[in-house]
Amino acid sequence: MSLESHLADLLHGHTSTPPTPFASNIVSRAKVKHATPGRVIFELPVEEDMLNGMDVVHGAVYALLIDTLTSICLLSHPSHPPPGTTVSLNLTYMSPASLGETLQVLTDVVRVGGRVAVIQAEVRTLDGGRDADDESGDNEVLTKKEGDSAKAKKEGKVCVKGMHVKYLVGRGPRL
């Protein structure tokens, strides 16, 4: 089974722990577009149940996506870290997304240590953006890694940047 297929199965609830109805309703729309060990790109459409009273994606939806999708990204890491629990989830909201836009969620494992892992994420729109090959640097996709051929179709605005710190259950020495 390919890494992308394995992650897609995890994403769509083919595990022993079913996601909550709220989470599965939104997260199940995400599709794995590209995966390499420790780096996964997801895409999903913005739909009505994701919007707040101002008709833009609710901040809690971004938190749900970043929490869940960075956890799935962590499972792709070559060190095969055990499941964990969130220690810290930090989000910086930068620009709203609206109904009909497509979100791209770029996730990247920054570090897997003895007790914690750090995963970063960036949520951006694909619609109305510029060519992904534009090297101006003002719309950089996370950290470029050598040999990473994944590129966005069209990069729009950056909506949210996030950092997720997870405690790795049963790993490393007790303090």
TrEMBL record:
Asked whether the keyword Hydrolase is assigned, the reply is yes
Region annotated Disordered, chain positions: 128-153
Comp. bias regions, Basic and acidic residues: 141-153
Looking at the keywords, is Hydrolase present? yes
Can you give the residue ranges of the Thioesterase domain?
Answer: 55-129
Pfam families on file: 4HBT
Example of a GO MF term: fatty acyl-CoA hydrolase activity
Keywords, in A-Z order: Hydrolase
Q: Which family does it belong to?
A: Belongs to the thioesterase PaaI family.
State what protein this is by name.
Acyl-coenzyme A thioesterase 13
Species this protein is from: Rhizophlyctis rosea
